[in-house]
């Protein structure tokens, strides 16, 4: 669970939402709803690429 919290912080969501946990949960629920839709594969590909780029940028 701590690692997941670190990912939320790394994405900047804590600052962008003024640490409003209801907003952060809403964002996560929206993402889950998108993953339940017909466009799951496309969405996963897009998010995976963005995440991989962010991890790569972090290493530099």
TrEMBL record:
Q: Name one Pfam family in it.
A: TraD
What is the official name of this protein in its record? Putative conjugal transfer protein traD
Recall the taxonomic lineage recorded for the source organism: Bacteria, Pseudomonadati, Pseudomonadota, Alphaproteobacteria, Sphingomonadales
